[in-house]
Every structure is written in structure tokens, then in C-alpha cells.
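Lab notes, practical 5.
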Amino acid sequence: MVIPLPSVPMPDGPLPEECQPNVLRLKYSIIAMIFFACGRAVCAIALGAVSFDFFALLNIFLSIVMGTFLLKDDQHLRSFYKCLAETICQICADSGQGGMQCLIPFMLMTLLNVMMDFIQRMAFLSIMPYGIFLAGSEISQACAVYFACSIYKQIRMPPGESEMGLGGGYNYDRVNRTDAPAQQGFHDARAESTQPGHFAVFQGQGQRLGS
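Output from the prediction step:
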């Protein structure tokens, strides 16, 4: 089954300084996802429940891959990204996938995993030690979704402040922008050009029909 994901254009380049705390929290959430997913897989194998948890673990692995490509330049995830880029994810790496363009797919995929685990596997939290890793997996994924959403909100520009004044846009690296005065002048000139002039209705000479 293919899950359609929205094509949301994301900016490229260094993130603003205000996003760094959430990026750090997101990194630790992804590392926690890796830890609890491995423990969950080992417990599922020990309990003979691999067939029951296989697709959930596969979806978590896909979320981890997206998160690793999202933070491919991080010093702690760089080696794992390199391993993926040289093996099973070589096609994605060669096509230039990675960075902030993975933010929306990662957020939606991980959110779907959390919802499915909550609906289908909450009754298995009492099975130890599987329940510990299941709970840790759900919590770490929920935290990753929250911090990814926080980053998305931070790089979004408030409505009415996009470059063409049409709403939406991105608040990406606005601290280093140098075109703000010229852009303001553009908006001022655009506003002046739309001011009502001296226009009179039915002004001028008309012609009578049949003349």
C-alpha cells in the first residue's frame, strides 16, 4: 500500500538559531526510537510474536530512515546515514533526498505509527519486558512528532508576510535576510499604485445609437 504524502516545498540551507533546541530534541527522540525499536524487536522474537509485530516494526524502521535522512548532517546520525546511503537507501541518497524536505513525510509517517500502535497494541503493555519497549517506542515517536511539528511551525512565516504578500511562505533564515528594506519598499509602492485616482463614471462624450 502506498500512502500519498502532500508535496510541500521546504527550504534548503542552515536552520535559524531559534530552531536548534527543537532539532536537538528531535535527534534524541530519533535515537530513542532506534533503541526502543531494537528492544521491541528482540522481545518480539523471544516471545514468538514476530509475525504480529513485523509490519509495525517495519513502519518504525521507515520512520527512523526518514528521520536519519532529515538530520543527515548531525554528528551522531551521520555514520548511520552513510551506512544507509551506501546500502539499501542508495537510490534515495543519489537522487538528493534528505534534509528539511523529509520533515513532512517523517512527521506524518511517525504520527501514523503512533496512532496504529495505540489502537492495536495497548492491550500488550502488560506483557513484560515487551510492554516496556512498546511504551518507550510510542512515547519516543510521539515526542519526535511533537518536535518535528515545532520545527515546522518555526520555519513557517506568519500569514501576510510572504514575499509576494499572499500569505504562507517560510520563516527560513529570516535573521540573515538583507532584502527586507527593498521588500518593504516594494509593498509600499504596490499599495500606492492601488490607491483610487480621479476617475469619474460616464466621463467623456458618447455616441448615440444609430448616429
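Observations recorded by the TA: The chain is about 55% helix and 0% strand. The helical segments are 20-47, 50-70, 78-85, 90-94, 103-120, 130-155, 180-193.
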